[in-house]
């Protein structure tokens, strides 16, 4: 493993052997994803077609976004910062990345206070940095590396907020929802960015960087590097979402699925670890306003806070998220 001192100590001894705690990729009844090249639907933000958008959200729960208006120089600068920060020695990252930044590893599940949820049953082969965008303006650091990084993140956050709002408004139109009622279903102040690094894993078993899941968000917007490894489940097959430079991947999250009355679907996805190269990704998530009640014909009325609490409980007790099924009307759970 290269770059060893920058990885969490827990990863050093686990790398050499197939560890029982690492979730394995479940390829049962599925074809090998690496052999399947798929054409993810493409949505053009500059000339947005409601029909194409609606179709992609219904059939895939995911699309590739082009002409999003983020300068390529900002995208490459951010990627460089992310690589530089993760390459710091483990102890330095812990010391440097303080509130509102939060450095974590082994699980992508954080508590509402921002701490990593410990006691989860599985280790995911990842490190992450959590960044609540609304808290960035108050952040001050003596370290010039973090100051520059913060400015780039703020600029990136403004772009992502613009993009998410435009897409959400178009989805509301396409679904014929009441625009007034839908206003609180997407609250830009809830937006956060997650930076991830997936270290390479040399042993021959197929380790999982991030276990399969659906996102709890309204929308998630993923910006992955050229290494790749993101896979989606479609028609019971895992498909590799190959990286295309300069494009973004928009995922429909659980909240959007509920808002759309299950017309759109929250896409199941996971991340496969690369054997030689580490992978980084920059992901944005946005949620409904805290007290906004989500009403639909399929689910009991609930707030995002109710949903999040349920996810935390299930993750602690069962080791995985049950998700929307917990809120289904007449659910036996
Ligand atoms: O790293 C990625 O590409 C995906 C991350 C992800 O799925 C998540 O944070 O929910
Ligand atoms: Fe995800």
TrEMBL record:
Q: What is the lineage of its organism?
A: Eukaryota, Viridiplantae, Streptophyta, Embryophyta, Tracheophyta
The entry sums up its family as follows: Belongs to the iron/ascorbate-dependent oxidoreductase family.
Q: What is this protein called?
A: Protein YLS7-like
Query: Which source organism does the UniProt entry give?
Result: Hibiscus syriacus (Rose of Sharon)
Q: Name one GO molecular function term.
A: metal ion binding
Gene3D superfamilies, alphabetized? B-lactam Antibiotic, Isopenicillin N Synthase, Chain
In this chain the Fe2OG dioxygenase domain maps to: 189-288
Alphabetical UniProt keywords = Iron, Metal-binding, Oxidoreductase
């Amino acid at each position: 493993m290269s770059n060893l001192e920058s990885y969490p100590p827990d990863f050093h001894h686990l790398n050499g052997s197939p560890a029982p705690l690492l979730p394995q990729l479940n390829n049962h009844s599925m074809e090998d994803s690496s052999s399947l090249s798929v054409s993810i639907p493409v949505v053009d933000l500059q000339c947005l077609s409601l029909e194409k958008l609606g179709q992609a959200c219904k059939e895939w729960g995911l699309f590739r976004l082009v002409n999003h208006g983020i300068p390529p120089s900002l995208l490459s600068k951010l990627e460089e910062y992310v690589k530089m920060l993760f390459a710091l020695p483990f102890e330095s990252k812990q010391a440097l990345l303080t509130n509102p930044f939060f450095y974590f590893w082994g699980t992508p599940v954080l508590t509402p206070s921002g701490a990593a949820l410990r006691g989860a049953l599985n280790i995911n082969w990842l490190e992450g940095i959590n960044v609540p965008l609304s808290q960035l303006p108050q952040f001050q650091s003596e370290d010039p590396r973090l100051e520059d990084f913060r400015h780039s993140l703020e600029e990136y956050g403004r772009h992502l907020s613009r993009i998410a709002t435009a897409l959400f408004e178009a989805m509301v139109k396409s679904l014929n929802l009441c625009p007034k009622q839908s206003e609180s279903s997407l609250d830009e102040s809830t937006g956060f960015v997650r930076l991830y690094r997936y270290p390479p894993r040399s042993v021959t078993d197929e380790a999982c960087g991030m276990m399969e899941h659906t996102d709890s968000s309204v929308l998630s917007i993923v910006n992955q590097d050229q290494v790749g490894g993101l896979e989606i489940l479609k028609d019971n097959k895992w498909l590799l979402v190959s990286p295309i430079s300069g494009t973004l991947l928009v995922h429909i999250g659980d909240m959007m699925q509920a808002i759309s009355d299950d017309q759109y679907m929250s896409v199941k996805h996971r991340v496969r670890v690369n054997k030689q190269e580490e992978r980084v990704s920059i992901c944005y998530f946005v949620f409904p306003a805290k007290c906004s009640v989500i009403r639909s014909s399929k689910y009991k009325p609930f707030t995002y806070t109710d949903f999040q609490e349920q996810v935390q409980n299930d993750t602690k007790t069962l080791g995985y998220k049950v998700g929307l099924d917990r809120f289904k009307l007449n659910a036996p759970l």
